[in-house]
Amino acid sequence: MKTLKFKPEYLLLTIGLFLVSFDCSSQDIKLTRQEKKEAERAQQYLNFQALDSLLRNKCFVLEADWLENGYGVRRHVMSDINFIMVNSQKAVIQTGSVSSIGWNGVGGSTAEGNISGMKIERNEKKLAFFLRFTVVSNLGYYDVAMTVYSNNDARATISGLTPGKLVYDGKIEALYNSRVYKGHNPI
User: pTM for this one?
Assistant: First the structure.
């Protein structure tokens, strides 16, 4: 019967080879904190430029993940039925809910109309845009004040002729990438 002899030299040699191979594979290029910050800033600036053309062409949708009333109460909502859509000189402002049917068939209301007086301001220091426009629809006049950031986050405040406001908080998308469902307008 054969017996195995334990030789510590072989064990040390095996461990040494393992450590050498591990050390060679972990020599990835590591960026310093400053380099990471600069790369992130460059990416945000590219996003800012893309957003500039998107907003100036007036072909975008704010898909709201949150709605907030005038008292600051926030509710999580479905972004495919709660949105503000801008397409050239037309706009759609819609709210919806999965728990009821509502006037528009998606549990809320849909205001569709023409845009008047759109103003776009660029803030290159903060890499943000501020938009202001009025939607003239058959349901009334709605003033929209929207802030869009370079990471595609957007926040829009809607006010009308009556007291109160509604805040849409979500992401801005190109119209062709949007996945919203527009309910019907009963009027």
Answer: 0.78
